[in-house]
Specification:
It contains nine helices and no strands. It is an all-alpha fold. Helix 1 (14-40) packs across helix 2, helix 4 (64-76) runs parallel beside helix 7 (123-150) and helix 5 packs across helix 9 (184-198). The longest helix is centred in the middle third of the chain and has 28 residues, at 123-150. The termini are far apart. 23% of the residues are buried.
């Protein structure tokens, strides 16, 4: 068997231990961010809680900003996947439920307002958040729009930027700014509003 034909093997031994340590550090970093905020977040505190030296962190992340952004990315980006339910309405409902799960996470709900405020003063952090959290989530949201256009439920010239904003903004505003609950009834009403606002057409039957 040629080397190129060998199946990729799952990490074992020391590699598994290293992966488990990285995952543990990320989880601790999220706890620290939620408890202390970005201003008091430190590599020293994370290392101490993880039971490792600071060098173990710096081998993985060059700064506390890099660790914070990496942790937020690992928590946030996977939740932006957009399942194909077969219709725009179904896709919107699934995505809004995922957005709620993301924003209503006990740790993330405390971290997000603090990090956003810090990013207003820290351009490096702002750019890193956009590149590693904002842009990847929006790229996944594009798949929902592409499917709706292909089904002819949305016009090809739909305002994609505005639509992607509308998928998260109402939930963020209600949870974080108004501090009101977001239930299933609210999500259903939001889907109805988005369908009307986007001028969506009924799904074209598949041939």
């Amino acid at each position: 068997m040629e080397p190129g034909d060998r199946e990729k093997r799952k990490p074992t031994g020391a590699a598994v231990l290293q992966l488990e340590l990285t995952e543990a550090i990320v989880d601790i970093a999220l706890d620290e961010l939620a408890a202390k905020g970005f201003g008091r977040f430190s590599m020293e505190a994370v290392a101490k809680r993880a039971g490792v030296g600071k060098s173990a962190l710096y081998r993985r992340w060059p700064s506390k900003s890099a660790l914070a952004v990496s942790a937020l990315s690992q928590l946030s980006v996977p939740l932006a996947e957009t399942p194909d339910t077969g219709s725009l309405r179904g896709d919107l409902r699934a995505v809004l439920a995922a957005v709620l799960s993301w924003l209503d996470d006990p740790r993330f709900g405390r971290i997000l307002p603090d990090v956003v405020a810090e990013a207003l003063r820290n351009e490096e952090l702002a750019e890193a958040l956009t590149a590693n959290v904002g842009d990847p989530r929006r790229e996944r949201g594009e798949a929902l729009i592409d499917r709706a256009v292909a089904r002819r439920e949305l016009p090809e010239d739909v305002d994609r930027e505005l639509m992607l904003d509308l998928l998260a903004a109402p939930i963020f505003w209600r949870l974080t700014v108004r501090r009101l609950p977001v239930g299933q009834e609210f999500l259903d009403s939001l889907v109805d509003m988005l369908i009307r606002a986007l001028g969506a057409q009924p799904e074209t039957p598949r041939q």
